[in-house]
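Many introductory courses stop at the sequence. We go one step further.
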Amino acid sequence: MNNTINSPPEDISNISVINKIKNFGVFRFILWVLAIGLSLVVIYLLIAKVFPPSSNINSETTAIVTGVDPVDVDLPQFAFPTSKTENILRRAIYDTDIPVRQKGVVESYTVLQGDSLFGIAEENNISPETLLWANFSVLNDNPDEIVPGMVLSVPPVNGVYYQWQEGDTFDTVASNFETAPEKIVNWFGNNLDIVNPSVDPGNWIMVVDGQREFKQWVIPIVARGSAGVSSTAYGPGGCVGPFDGAYGTGSFAWPSSIHTLVGNDFWSGHLALDIATGEGLSILAADSGVVVFAGWANGGYGNTVMIDHGNGYATLYAHMAYVSIGCNASVAKGQSVGGGGSSGNSTGPHLHFEVRLWGGFINPWFVLPAP
């Protein structure tokens, strides 16, 4: 009888489960190792970012790592400025763009010594014609009538400063001053109701962009062979012809040793140049010719000389302190005819210089040499 007891056979399914459990434990171990390693890498990167490695590597270390001998370089020493002027100061600049707003009222201005109508107009950004038209009652359309202490009305825009009359309409006023009626109505400074505009007689308004003819006062041209200028009408400086003598060379020279303007330029209301001069400084004949006016002239010109050059040209020199030449005298180009001054209606020493051709005015800039 066989007493050997045979063990029951192991269940195959149980063996598979045990193997799976063992395999899972190994896998989990591997995952833990990877997780710990990744955590260490992240911690290292964070520490390196917060505390970067020092770049102060000495030259010996560099030589060992790179195998290249270090090179000694003498760097310039930083020098602190020795004075405040060497410092660069940066200050905030407060720059506010303020739009230029047009004025809406006519202002008063008292003329000062050295002023000119041209200069006052330029300072107020209006044309000299506008300023002349606005002051007919004191200037009578003659810019040479301006004197220190005179009070002028200064319009805010170009045009005619006009006192409304009985029977005026916007159409008739605009037509008389060669502008459009809507420019009068729409300009804010006139304070008109654009729906039902009206102006009471006696009130002043700006005829915007309007214009009118000038009433010009001038000494008429005196041609050779004429009877001369009536001293009664134009002043005691008028000469009696006929005139004969030197003729012009055909070219002009500056009538003053100072070749700059001091006052009015040439414009429609001032047919001359106001050239700088000093009190008593010689005024010179711009070209050769015969004197046809020498002495005092009415109308604000003061001491005046006119020279006929015998070739269609004539020149006039006004506001002089004195006249040193007489009627009918022949003068040479560059000869003194008087001294600079401020006689007549003038706000300071200057020479009023006119050039005329066949009786008409031309701009002296066209014939004078470059300054």
